[in-house]
Amino acid sequence: MNISFVFDVLGVIAFSISGVLSGVNKRLDIFGIFIIAFVTSVGGGTLRDIMLNLPVFWMQNMLYSYLIFVSGLLAVIFRKKLYYLKNSLFLFDTIGISLYTIIGIQKGIEAELHPLICIFLGILSACFGGVLRDILCNEIPIIFRKEIYATACLSGGIIFFVLTYFSVPPNWVVILSGAVVFTVRLSAVLFKWSLPSLYQKD
Amino acid sequence: MNISFVFDVLGVIAFSISGVLSGVNKRLDIFGIFIIAFVTSVGGGTLRDIMLNLPVFWMQNMLYSYLIFVSGLLAVIFRKKLYYLKNSLFLFDTIGISLYTIIGIQKGIEAELHPLICIFLGILSACFGGVLRDILCNEIPIIFRKEIYATACLSGGIIFFVLTYFSVPPNWVVILSGAVVFTVRLSAVLFKWSLPSLYQKD
Amino acid sequence: MNISFVFDVLGVIAFSISGVLSGVNKRLDIFGIFIIAFVTSVGGGTLRDIMLNLPVFWMQNMLYSYLIFVSGLLAVIFRKKLYYLKNSLFLFDTIGISLYTIIGIQKGIEAELHPLICIFLGILSACFGGVLRDILCNEIPIIFRKEIYATACLSGGIIFFVLTYFSVPPNWVVILSGAVVFTVRLSAVLFKWSLPSLYQKD
């Protein structure tokens, strides 16, 4: 079985749960919650496919819709339990961006684009669903604010091409660079890393 | 004459008027009002066509631009009269989503997609113009808040495929399922139906 | 050397600098600043290419990414100097929209679209990057508010087709209609022109 496929499925589930928790938090109705779950899950990949002139992935394969629906439903039912696991939203979000970064890079490579553009597609796939979620909830997207977020995807993307350059086997490239995204993001939150803001009162 | 075409034209007019009223309400200048009218009218269909890799409908056929301009202009001129008809904004919006839901479903069927994806395209065509309008006006999109909105489109979409399954003639499928969207949305507002919000203080 | 290419490069630089200044102003971190610079620079052109079913311009040609990165970096380093030149943000923005309006119109002509749609594509190319920038920063897009902005692009677009109709040589059409956009926008701010808002308390 293809490891990319496993990553894809896990990413959809992780983001769907993250979307449900955001929607519940924003006091949306049940339909709005599922829309946010859907948008968070497939938003980044949809923009990626549109920009690559590919068929939109979830419109060709019903698996994604079913996964989002079922995992969203479970998240709604067990939302209290997920809540009490204080950091669950954060954890699912972090797993999601790790997985999606790699998928985005791989699609860029298939389209024979420049490595930098591939990394950009990875960041886009990983972060744009969350950006849409935040825009729809009328907030400044979290990735533009203090926390290290897209930077984690960027690090993983660079590692991806460095490992590929040194002929590391593809499955290991995928696992290791995904782990880098996850670790950087996790460390950033645990150790309160942040990028400098350049704003100053003059 | 094709009934889909009539629906298409009426939908554009309805959404254009709804956009003008929102823009006036938001104190935008005259140019901004026309942009909002345009975005509300064609936003959903544009995203639908992009996702289906089809040419964007209003770029191939000037009829839509002229319709939006003329109906927008009339809405601007007679805006006070439309205002005094307290519920006009709501009414035009409701007509618009009924018509666009059906058009979206039909485009999905032409692209030979799964019925669920067709219904999704219907909801997208119907609701995304309004979502864009609300995002541009810096509000949480109305469809994510209390009122039953996308649910009305969903009901109509399901009826569409149920009727088709029972071999109801196409024109009747279109009229009946459009009527379902309209009736559900209207009833929801008249009888103050709403979907449950899952938010709770813990 | 093609004058369109020179315009393209200058437009990217101008918008990139304008994006950096907005990002700094919004207290974003360094990564967020570069994302805003990128989105402001290529957002309008990306939507234009997607709607025309063309390959997205900056994904095919690394020049744009490098230009945005270098000009963004210079803008970050010299941001205080740019700040003290009070109107620099405005000036770069105005140069950017002038250049992008023309490029959008030219792409529309190449796709053999109706002149009105070409003008619309010009406005979209010029303004949508800024709209995205404002949406991401959670503000009502500047073009929908008081100032004459899209109207300047509209004027330039009309002049473009009037000059073309009278067989003015292409390079002069480009320079003159670009100058119209620039002049209208500059005059609008200098002389505090604005379009009427139709809002009234009833």
Termini distance of chain A?
A: 58 Å
Strand content of chain A: under 5%
Low-confidence stretches of chain A: none
The structural class of chain A is mainly alpha
Oligomer: homotrimer
Mean pLDDT of chain A: 83
Helix proportion range of chain A: over 70%
Largest interface: A-B, 29 and 30 residues
* Total DSSP E strands of chain A: 0
Total count of helical runs of at least 4 residues of chain A: 9
Helix and strand sequence of chain A: HHHHHHHHH
Explain the overall architecture.
The structure is a homotrimer of 202-residue chains. In chain A, helix 6 packs across helix 8 (150-165). The first copy, chain A, has helices spanning 3-25, 30-51, 57-60, 63-77, 79-84, 88-110, 115-136, 150-165, 170-190. The mean pLDDT of chain A is 83. The first copy, chain A, has nine helices and no strands. The longest helix of chain A is centred in the N-terminal third of the chain and has 23 residues, at 3-25. Chain A is mainly α and 202 residues long. The first copy, chain A, has a domain at 3-138. Chains in contact: A-B, A-C, B-C. The A-B interface holds A 23-33, 35-36, 46, 50, 53, 55-56, 59, 62, 65, 76, 79-80, 83, 135-138 and B 50-53, 113-114, 116-117, 120, 131, 135, 138-141, 143-146, 148, 150-151, 154, 194-199, 202.
